[in-house]
Design a protein that fits this description.
By secondary structure, this protein is α+β, with helices and mostly antiparallel strands. The chain contains 19 helices and ten strands. The chain is elongated and about 165 Å long. Residues 1-10 have low confidence and may be disordered. Strands 1, 2, 3, 4, 5, 6, 7 and 8 form an eight-stranded antiparallel sheet that branches. Strands 9-10 form a two-stranded antiparallel ribbon. It folds into three domains: 62-242, GAF domain (Beta-Lactamase, 2-Layer Sandwich); 264-327 and 455-579, Hypothetical protein af1432 (Orthogonal Bundle); 338-451. It is 55% helix and 9% strand.
Length: 589
Amino acid sequence: MSDTTPCAETALTTEACDALQADIAELAKDKRLQKLLSTVVEEVRCYAQDQLTHLKQLARIGVALSGQTDIDRLLEMIVDEARSLTSADAGTLYIVNPERTHLHFVILQNETMKTRMGGSGGKPITLPPVCLHTENRGENHANVSSHVALTGAIVNIPDVYQAEGFDFTGPKKYDAATGYRSTSMLVIPMRNHENEIIGVLQLLNSQNPETGEVCGFDQEYVDLVASLASQAAVALTNAQLIKDLKGLLDSFIQSIAAAIDAKSPYTAGHITRVVELTMLIADRVNAQSNGPFAGVRFSENELEELSLSAWMHDVGKITTPEHVVDKSTKLETIFDRSELIRTRFDLFEQALIARYQAERAETCEFAARGTSGGHKALSHDLSALRDRHAAELSALREDRDFVLSCNTAFMDDAKIARLNEIAARTFEVDGQQVPALTENEVYNLSVRKGTLTDEERQIIENHAHMTHEILGRLSLPKRLARVPKFAGSHHEKLDGSGYPERLLAEDIPLQSRILAVADVFEALTARDRPYKKPMPLSQAVKILGFMQKDGHIDGDVLSLFLASGACHEYAGKQLAPEQIDDFACSAPK
């Protein structure tokens, strides 16, 4: 243990400080030394200030890079900031391809030559990629960028014309063709969080900030750019991951949509076309500078949200039975039961024919026994029997044809009354009374408009509710949070008569209103429905006009769709030439 007490230590320290101050005061009397000390202090202060500035700049760059999700813009930022840090005249960024066989040019900048290629605003780069391997499958260390990508080493070259070990034929040819002079070069690998090299940053011709003369890259710059490259690699990996996840979500959504379309041969392509129509209308909304949509601008995220809603608007049909989705006639279930009715009426016809044959044979037998009034009477009886049979047979066939026509016809009170009258009849077949129609057949054939019964319509309408339920279970990012609402509300009507929630106009988002117009227009004009002829534009627009007057769809959206030319643009791509006729380019008043 030291014999020096704390008080003694304090005293010694104080004495040492006093002595040091005295020495400094003595030295300060020497003006030359004083000037030297002042110079050193200023240099240290400037160095510290520079380091602080660089640290702040790196921190700012790191924040900017981490917040950028647009990969093209991010790649551009990496080269811009690296050049700024090092006062480099030119910069090139290479990215390793997924197969790790080549380095692809993604950014190429040269301030002197006024060149900006790649990125968000530059010209496309047409230069061939740099091979990482030679023709005999050996590693390519001749090219400095491929060498760095393969080894992970940092290469700092004062003058490429004096350097050995690398092939600089490319830069020298560029210089000869343009008059440029490639001198100093700094090549740094970009490593991701898994220590895998994903790219190479190459800077050219560092310049003295004061004189503008080309000089080599100081070690200080090497350390700064290495730090930047590390940050950039992480930011690039994150941005690529976000892009990949978005791509995965989009492809998954589209595969689900394709499966829904494939479920029904009658609606194949419906979803894809609704997406096209929806985004076409949204683009027209964004282009408006006056009118009801003058203040509406869908952002990039909102457009993505609307697109996804259109892709998913019918996802609830996964739960809808195929025989309901595809019901093209009133009697259709798993198959069209009209054939059963046709067969049943054929049996009735055969029964009538059999009864006629039996009655005719009986009449002839009576004549043979001499019980009739002679040959003349027999002829009269047979003629009457034949006429009655022909009338019964004709009436039966008329009833059959009428019943079968009800399978697709609009039904009024008179038709329903006649249908019930036919259904009340019975026919004897093999000794049993068989009704002309079953109760269920009458119920289905009595549907006044369309092919669906009330129960089947409820099943169909339930798909909108299921769309909301299914999408509501997805952990969608915040920017897509309203997809379930938009997709699940595309069958709502402004007057509150829609489904599934009977929303009123003020509760229906504009996105859902756009979807509704797109969905109805596609259904009306689709030319791949085997159960109906393609509808001409004029008729489709007329029906949409009636729907607007009835308060079912948004009149402003419809007017914009027609007057902006979006309708004709879509028609030119998707409709048959004979469907594109003349119509008023505005919604009916």
